Amino acid sequence: GAPMVGRLAIIGIGLIGSSIARAARQHGLASSIAIADASPAAMAEASRLGLGDSCGTDAAEAAADADLVILCVPVGAMGQVGAAIAGALKPGAIVSDVGSVKGSVVAQLGPHLPEGVHLVPAHPVAGTENSGPGAGFASLFHNRWCIITPPEGADPQAVETLRAFWAGMGANVETMSPERHDLVLAVTSHLPHLIAYNIVGTAADLEQVTRSEVIKFSAGGFRDFTRIAASDPTMWRDIFLNNKDAVLEMIGRFNEDLAALARAIRWGDGDALFELFTRTRAIRRGIIDSGQETAEADFGRRHDDDATA
Amino acid sequence: GAPMVGRLAIIGIGLIGSSIARAARQHGLASSIAIADASPAAMAEASRLGLGDSCGTDAAEAAADADLVILCVPVGAMGQVGAAIAGALKPGAIVSDVGSVKGSVVAQLGPHLPEGVHLVPAHPVAGTENSGPGAGFASLFHNRWCIITPPEGADPQAVETLRAFWAGMGANVETMSPERHDLVLAVTSHLPHLIAYNIVGTAADLEQVTRSEVIKFSAGGFRDFTRIAASDPTMWRDIFLNNKDAVLEMIGRFNEDLAALARAIRWGDGDALFELFTRTRAIRRGIIDSGQETAEADFGRRHDDDATA
Ligand SMILES: NC(=O)c1ccc[n+]([C@@H]2O[C@H](COP(=O)([O-])OP(=O)(O)OC[C@H]3O[C@@H](n4cnc5c(N)ncnc54)[C@H](OP(=O)(O)O)[C@@H]3O)[C@@H](O)[C@H]2O)c1
Ligand SMILES: NC(=O)c1ccc[n+]([C@@H]2O[C@H](COP(=O)([O-])OP(=O)(O)OC[C@H]3O[C@@H](n4cnc5c(N)ncnc54)[C@H](OP(=O)(O)O)[C@@H]3O)[C@@H](O)[C@H]2O)c1
Fold first, then answer.
1. How far apart are CA A240 and CA A220, in angstroms?
2. What is the CATH number of the domain that holds A22?
3. Of the candidates A209, A218, A253, which has its C-beta nearest B287's C-beta?
4. Does residue A119 form part of some domain?
5. What angle in degrees, to the nearest 10, is found between the helix axes of B191-205 and B233-242?
6. Which residues contact A238 (CB under 8 A, 6 or more apart)?
7. ipTM over 0.90
8. Could B215 and A276 be called an inter-chain contact, meaning their C-beta atoms sit closer than 8 Å?
9. Residue B156, class by beta-carbon neighbours within 10 Å (0-12 exposed, 13-18 middle, 19+ buried)?
10. What is the interface size between A and B, counted as CB pairs within 8 Å?
11. Cα(A20)–Cα(A12) distance, rounded to whole angstroms?
């Protein structure tokens, strides 16, 4: 049959944008794909990889005449891109994004969009620690969740089109409010990243233990944190600045719990430690049972057959 | 040639003990292997798997006449096992262990061992989140570090035998004092585990976000912490109770840094966030360059050709 959408515009052709381009092409979801990215280097790589039918640095040009425009830029750049494309959007166009924070994106984009254009934000909960057009691959969203956060009063047909588009790329689609999204992701993504960045920073700054000792003996657990803490600095700066309240609330909870844990260690309360360490296993089992992870042990040297474009 | 050691006794046949049994057998490092474990279930599984020449629940019986005895029990059980085997040890025997804390193990074992028996503690910095005789495999120590922590005045020949034994299983051997070991591992292993247990506990206890939401959207980073927080509760309770001072010191550092990070988020100091998030990448690169990890992206669904016994 005919593709689900006509002209698809992707603004920002990094890990997520290029994965959408590949998946949309592979599954025949759009009749044409226009790409724009502010970075000439990214643009050149996207051209070389043949990710779209047209490639340029002008977002408005890519968005002109598009049926679906997906903003795949850092959360802090959404408002700027919204302002740049607003005048070029055709009536009935759907504007979406993939930002990791949703309340702020709605607030940034909403004021720019003309009457008759449908804003339907989304967030695919899938990614790797790598960036750029070369890092993407078509199966990134397979069996992963994509959360759609339609603002109040959103057009049901536009929401359905976006849902079908993400389902077409293999994602499981869930709908929730932007506020709920930001609270849930503060726990499942933003706090873990902050903690990982923090512990790697702490280790790097110690004067009693050298950096080469930290590197050498990292296999004891630290190594896994460094992978998360190697994620893109711009992306994560923007996430924390744009989900401040929920993140600070989660830091508060984390701190209370850590204080209790430190007290248990100080006073030799082995039962309290054992109880917590047993309870945390149930969550792991839930994640494995839900198919979001395998139970296989991790030895720090991986092979992955998903890693194909 | 003749095996490196004659009779090898392994007390505690869990993940680490059974990996040593398999590796020693595969590389012909001992002329015979005697196994003891307090758990009849573990003992039965070890027998069924054919991990040793003899299997029983009596540690003294396994240690009798042994040239090298390796204690592979939780850190909190070392003193008790030392007391149990002391009377059975022959003169010139080497007593070692694999405990994740070293100062406490030296303190627990030292007083029990008779004159003429050599205490040479060690810690292989390798493992998985799984436990028990079935979880071990012969290549677990391949290209991993094993830290030997000889007490002051240790017999050089005994130290050399233990070094050669670990090198024979494919490990890279490093020597340091028990105190330094406990400080370095507090950063590279103990603090990361504590933080992982803590964040998973925090997430499990939230009243605003349900446990099923946490599980469902765990792919955003949280998932990786749950793997670490699924490690054995007894083992980790014992580690924290026996490396209290270094762990509490590291928690203090971590807290100071997290407070600064929270302040940067609260006041919108994007430059401070960006600076930290950039700095942490250097450590990651160091780990990859050192061969302790691959640069491949992690998609949460792994395959590993190391996972063979
Ligand atoms: N990575 C993940 O794991 C993940 C997962 C889910 C959602 N997300 C979200 O997806 C979005 C993109 O992330 P990503 O990982 O794909 O990032 P990325 O690989 O760094 O790609 C972002 C691209 O957007 C370009 N860009 C930045 N500002 C722009 C602007 N004003 N106009 C046009 N292009 C601009 C960047 O160019 P420069 O390099 O010149 O800045 C870069 O090429 C972010 O909002 C992020 O929160 C990421
Ligand atoms: N797992 C890792 O990643 C790792 C890495 C490096 C070092 N280590 C260290 O290695 C040691 C063993 O860890 P593991 O992961 O191999 O543990 P494990 O799989 O749980 O095995 C420990 C075994 O020792 C037995 N045991 C407990 N107390 C005993 C006693 N008093 N006498 C005889 N046997 C006893 C246990 O029986 P029960 O089940 O009945 O208690 C269990 O079968 C610990 O000191 C740990 O700190 C572990």
1. 28
2. 3.40.50.720
3. A218
4. yes
5. 120
6. A74, A75, A76, A77, A101, B270
7. yes
8. no
9. exposed
10. 378
11. 11
pLDDT at B138: 98
SS percent in chain B: helix, strand, coil, step 5:
50, 15, 35
Are A196 and A83 found together in one domain? Answer: no
Spatial distance between the Cα atoms of A24 and A5, rounded to a whole number of angstroms = 10
Q: What is the pLDDT of residues B129-179, one digit of tens each?
A: 899 999 999 999 999 999 999 999 999 999 999 999 999 999 999 999 999
Mutational test site, ligand 2, from B106, B235, B239, max ligand atoms within 8 Å of CB:
B235
Same-domain check for residues A242 and A166: no
Distance CA B10, CA B21 (A): 8
Same domain for A172 and A186: no
CB neighbours of A307 closer than 8 A, spacing ≥ 6?
A137, B296, B297, B299
Report d(CA A177, CA A138) in Å as an integer. 27
Q: Into how many domains does chain A fold?
A: 2
CA distances from B15 to A66, B100, B105, B131, B135 (A): 57, 13, 19, 5, 5
**A297: which 2 tokens?**
């042990």
Q: A251 and B234: CB-CB below 8 Å?
A: no
The H-or-E segment that residue A234 falls in is helix A233-242
Distances (CA, A) of B17 to A204, A296, B170: 33, 20, 16
Residues 6+ apart with CB under 8 A from A231: A129, A193, B277
Per-residue pLDDT tens over the stretch A53-96: 999 999 999 999 999 999 999 999 999 999 999 999 999 999 99
Task: Give the Cα-Cα-Cα angle A173, A152, A71 (nearest 5 degrees).
Answer: 55
A15 in contact with ligand 1, CB cutoff 6 A:
yes
DSSP state string for B35-51? EE-S-HHHHHHHHHTT-
Contacts of A201 (CB under 8 A, 6+ apart): A229, B257, B261, B276, B279, B280
Tell me which of A143, A176, A209 is where a domain ends. A176
Task: Give the residue from B145, B193, B187, B196 showing the smallest Cα distance to A204.
Answer: B187
Alpha carbons A186 and A240: distance in angstroms, whole number:
9
Contact B302 A292 (CB under 8 A): no
Cα distance between residue B232 and residue B83, in whole Å = 25
Provide the residue range defining the domain that includes A99: 5-176
3-state secondary structure of A96: strand
Q: How far apart are CA B22 and CA B264, in angstroms?
A: 51
Return the bridge partners of A35, or none. A10, A55
User: Do residues B145 and B242 share a domain?
Assistant: no
